[in-house]
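Open question from group meeting: does this chain pack into something compact, or does most of it stay loose? Before anyone orders reagents, we agreed to write out a predicted structure and look at it together. Recording both the input and the output here so the notebook holds the full record.
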Amino acid sequence: LSLDAAAFSSRGGTVAIPGVRTPVRVGPVRGGLEKHDFVLEPVTISFAGAAPREIPVARKPSLPAKQKAMAPGLAVSLKHDFDSHAGAVSVEGRVAQVEEVLHAAATLGRQLNFGWEVTGEASSDLQWKWGKPFGPVWGGSIDFSGAKLQVAGLNQALALEDVRLVWNAGKESVQIAKAEGFGAEWSGQIVHADPLDAQQGIQWNFDLHADRNSIGCRGTGPLGGARPGWVQRLLASLLGTAQPSVSASELLRRVNARGVLRADEFDLEKLKFKQVRAE
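Structure tokens returned:
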């Protein structure tokens, strides 16, 4: 037996998730099978209280203004070729409260964040692709605008004013146009290590710039007074382990990154430096 053609549709509905303030609204669903291609047309998923409506989908969003003009909601589509065993899932759109997406994913059994929380607005242009000869791989980007990033171990949230996460051929990078934290405004990038550094076990390269930074040693800094063990708690959270059994120095050794950190002004107690560059 073989199935030559099929079609399905739904007027949509709502999904109630414990802990999520508003129900998840699912827009009209249309899809089917034809000539060995399975296609699910874009389905709008929204956390907003109002019923979802069709949203414009930009294939290559280049300007944040275009993304901000989109109605809240994620357009999810799928395509799979049964002959070549290749396909992709696309997630495009904008959410006003990204924390609701994280909570919904955790409730459904897929924890995405360990030791960190993000609140605020985010927009995505993501594709999850699979097929031969390459395995499943992510592509696309997520943009944060006016979002807050809270990391366990730090008592101050980082403000992600204009930050983009990029997946290119499965390799992640962080493009920072503007972020605020530790009393400074930051810009720069964090990318997968180049081949030469990767051969030495380095996983990330970074080039970060701060307009001003300072370190307080009397318990008034952003590290909550740098109490003993804060590094261990911080890195354990980022690594997804609740109770680490290794020392803080061992956790620090696992952070394999190499790069440049620059600051226009740097204060260390009563010492004031200008145009500092650290490698």
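Observations to bring back to the group:
The chain has five helices and 15 strands.
The longest helix spans residues 98-107.
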